[in-house]
Each structure stands twice: as structure tokens, then as C-alpha cells.
Here is the input.
Amino acid sequence: MKHRTTCTVVITLAAIGMLAGCAPGGEELSARSASAPVWETDNPILPVPTSPLGIDFRLTDLPDPPTPASVRLGRWLFYDKRLSADGTIACASCHRPEHAFSEPTPVSTGIRGQKGGRKAPSFVNQAWTAVPYFFWDGRAQSLEDQALGPMANPIEMGNTHVAILQTLTANGYAPYFRQVFGAYEITNERVAKAIADYERTRLSGNSPWDRWKRGRDGSAVADVVKQGDALFFGKADCSRCHLGQNFTDSAFHNLGVGWDSRTRRFKDAGRFAVTKADHDRGAFKTPALRDVTLHAPYMHDGSVPTLRAVVELYNKGGIPNPHLDRKIRPLRLTGDEIDALVKFMEALEGEGYLDKPPNTFPGTRTERRR
Here is the structure.
């Protein structure tokens, strides 16, 4: 089921008696001098990034591309813990920049230390997807849908969309929404659009593999990486599912992960929970492989600790179960070939996505710089 609200909730500045066009304390949004609020001077509007080597798509080619102002607004929202019910969890709490916007734990942790059943997947290079499915089970059909769901999930951010809009209004976000959308009103859809625009700018490329493969630097990778490349696109046939510039078909496959042979059931039904189609039992979305070295542990439940263990799982043909994907078969790779595939994936470590949380947000109670 997609996480989409049934109606648009609008909170206006007039509803709580604030002055339109002013941040808390009366600071005008248009001020770009020493009187500008500290959260503006700390977080200036920056150009939208260009695509790195290895990514041929451009953000400007999107039907509704991010703008510098929408990205700044989305960045604030992505890192602002005040969007959670108890002020302890932000989107970035699970989608950590230093882990290429994945996380280093088997499953996510929400408010009050509650544990979810799945690991947060990375959204790097997700501005362009041939098939618009997000989350491990594909229940969201856009980055906007993906952004709204966790906010109202009781074991994630645990908030309500109405309360979030009230929080944003009370903390002076409305002028920044006007800057992006042309009106002071804060709505769920606009919150989601801004966050999604920030996520769209998290791009990764110019990896050693890109520099070698694109002919920029013949010595960018070692011979073992070149061997792994040949295996990936040849004998191991990994590119059947891990294809394209982001190494994913955005489709769903059953590897047997989570299969309980005793009960003959999956601990997590995966895509089946969305489609109710029998062939989708235990199937999960193919993860992208760029910066995959930063995503450990692996699989939807974090049950596979290392990249080598992932390749070994594929090498033995997955875990037998009645719904095993027909593409999964024993690969008969040698130990050296497994090592070469791992080295190939290590060479996909790119650049361009890194970020860190802002120190200040709209409404931050701190002295302005003079």
C-alpha cells in the first residue's frame, strides 16, 4: 500500500497569527545582508549539481527538475529531527550520508528505539528510474511517496502529517515554501517535493571503474577489477538484474533470503504484500551497486554481513524455496573469481553524493551573526 494522504492539509501563517514574509523574530526572507538569519547564512542557496562521470542523465532533463531553492529547503527538511513525534529522528537518521544514504545496521531504528523489519535502502542516483518503484517492496511510486511514508509510520518517525505542517509553520518555514512554490502555504505534497528534490541531487559517479571504463584512465583500476568486470558482464551474468548506469533493473527477485524451511514461510513477504501475486512472495527490489561497499550489512534484512558473502550466496544459487527466481542458478565461480567480483564492486565507490547535516534550521534559537 502506498503511503499517500487522502487529502491535502494546508497550514497558513495567518492561522497562527504570524506575519507573511517574515521568519521568527521578524527577519525578512529577502534580507541577504548581515541581518539575515543564521540558518540562511549557514546554508546559502547553491547551484544544482551536474552529473558526474558515469551518469549520462542530467537533472535539468527531468520534467520538473530541482531548483537551487527547492534543494536547500529539502535539505533542511531531510535533516530536521523536529519532523518526528519526539524530535529525535530525521530522514537522515536512517539514510546516512556517510553510508551513501543507507545505514550500517541490519534494520532501521525509529522513535523510542523501536526496530523496524527492514534496512533503509540508498536513494543515490534515484532521480532517474526506468520503473518507478521505491522501498524494498515497491509500494511507493515516486521519491515523493517514499518521503511521506516514514513520517507517519508509528515505529519510524511516529508523527502525523498535520502535526508536521504545524511544526514547520511555527518554526518559520513558510517563507521558504513561498520562495520555492510561489505561496506561503505548507502542504504535504510540497514537503514531499522539496525532500525528493534534495534526494535527487545525491549523485554518485567518477568512480575508478568509471574512469577506466570511459577511457579516461587506463590505470584507474587493477587487473583483478578488470577480471571482475568481465565476470560481472559475462560468466557470472550479474548484469541480468544489475544493469544500467546505476546497476539495477528496479524489479523484484526472490533469492530465498528470509525463507524459513521449518515453517515453509518467509519472515517478510516482500513484494507479495503489495501485489498479492503468488510469484512475488519473498521478492525484493534489486539494489543499486554504486557505493555498495558502504551499505553493509546486505539484503533487505541486513542478514548477509559482507559483499563476499553476497557473492557466495549467488554462487550457490540462492536459498531453495518454492518461489525462487528463475534467474537465480549456481554460478560455479572459483574463490579467485568471487574475489575479483568483490574487487569490481569496490571499484564502484564514487563521489558527488556526500553531505553533512546543517548546523542550523529555520527557527533555530541562536544569536544571529553580525
Notes: The CA atoms of residues 166 and 327 lie 49 Å apart.
